[in-house]
């Protein structure tokens, strides 16, 4: 079957692009901090370097301008003359004085004299501006580095979902696993069925979302994700798959979006991992191979069998039939 457009990719990326925002694009500037955090790393680094470079050059030019207007550059080597900033002879020396002041290096060779009120005002302005720029950009980089997106890459989902019987009931199942030894605290899983439908009033809904029950009433959606778990959705009269049979599965068109959320134990930040299953990734009459085995004093997980399934006898009829 030809691969069709997905709403959510297997890696969790949502295939949605926002266009024709018009005047609404100004909302991104009103929330500039979040906009910078959401940018890709290459743009973040470019903005980081450009902001500091431009700020340094502008402030160094202001110090050089004060020395030029006061005539300090011509009389800087005169020992009897009191300049605004001692030992500032040209633009490079003004730039070095700004860097020493901004970075609080303080070599002591260049310093402000008390006969320069404009220099004192500029020094105060430089201190305030530097604190604001440092707090904004360094805070942005810190938040971006500490985002738990990479943690989601160590949460695994089976490549396919299966439909078979469990405890005498027809169930839709898929597998999740955690590759790290650190746990996901308060892990919870949810499933959404994305399918187009038409209402009785004639309205067409191209991406209608329907909730799939994976144990809300019994608490089975709250996961203790120490070892791989098989998530089960019971197909009953309340399920959207009540009329689904093995034959009708071939002609259906739907997408199951799986959302796994939890708190990263090491950082305390909320992490979300996503994947999806289209109708051609749902295997009728299959079951997952076991991956747990008891070793000498511990349980061993064999992730080479994580995605493996095998066929089991399953009635080809829907629950309704």
UniProtKB/TrEMBL annotation:
Keywords: Ion channel, Ion transport, Membrane, Potassium, Potassium transport, Transmembrane, Transmembrane helix, Transport, Voltage-gated channel. It is a multi-pass membrane protein. It is found in: Membrane. Coiled coil: none annotated. One of its GO terms (cellular component) is monoatomic ion channel complex. One of its GO terms (molecular function) is G-protein activated inward rectifier potassium channel activity. InterPro entries: Ig_E-set, IRK_C, K_chnl_inward-rec_Kir, K_chnl_inward-rec_Kir3.1, K_chnl_inward-rec_Kir_cyto, Kir_TM. Residues 155-320 form the Inward rectifier potassium channel C-terminal domain. It holds the Pfam family IRK_C. Residues 8-148 form the Potassium channel inwardly rectifying transmembrane domain. Belongs to the inward rectifier-type potassium channel (TC 1.A.2.1) family. KCNJ3 subfamily. This is G protein-activated inward rectifier potassium channel 1. The gene is Kcnj3_0.
């Amino acid at each position: 079957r030809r691969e069709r457009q997905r709403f959510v990719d297997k890696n969790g990326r949502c295939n949605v692009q926002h266009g024709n925002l018009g005047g609404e694009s100004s909302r991104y500037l009103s929330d500039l901090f979040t906009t910078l955090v959401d940018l890709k790393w290459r743009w973040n680094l470019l903005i980081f370097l450009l902001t500091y470079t431009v700020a340094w050059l502008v402030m160094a030019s202001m110090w050089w301008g004060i020395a030029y207007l006061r005539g300090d550059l011509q009389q800087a080597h005169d020992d009897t003359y009191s300049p605004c900033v001692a030992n500032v002879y040209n633009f490079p020396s003004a730039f070095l004085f700004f860097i020493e002041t901004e970075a609080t290096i303080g070599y002591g060779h260049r310093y402000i004299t008390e006969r320069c009120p404009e220099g004192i005002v500029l020094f105060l302005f430089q201190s305030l501006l530097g604190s604001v720029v440092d707090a904004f950009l360094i805070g942005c980089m810190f938040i971006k580095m500490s985002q738990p997106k990479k943690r989601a890459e160590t949460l695994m989902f089976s490549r396919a979902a299966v439909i078979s019987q469990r405890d005498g009931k027809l169930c839709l199942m898929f597998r999740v696993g955690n590759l790290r030894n650190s746990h996901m605290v308060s892990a919870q899983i949810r499933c959404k069925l994305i399918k187009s439908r038409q209402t009785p009033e004639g309205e067409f809904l191209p991406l209608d979302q329907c909730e799939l029950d994976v144990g809300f009433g019994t608490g089975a959606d709250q996961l203790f994700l120490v070892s791989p778990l098989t998530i089960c959705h019971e197909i009953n009269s309340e399920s959207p798959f009540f009329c689904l049979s093995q034959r009708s599965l071939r002609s259906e068109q739907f997408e199951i979006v799986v959302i796994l959320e939890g708190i990263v134990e090491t950082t305390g930040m909320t992490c979300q991992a996503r994947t999806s299953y289209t109708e051609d990734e749902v295997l009728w009459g299959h079951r997952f191979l076991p991956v747990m085995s008891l070793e000498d004093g511990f349980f061993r997980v064999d992730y080479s069998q994580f995605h493996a399934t095998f066929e089991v006898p399953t009635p080809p009829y829907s629950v309704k039939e």
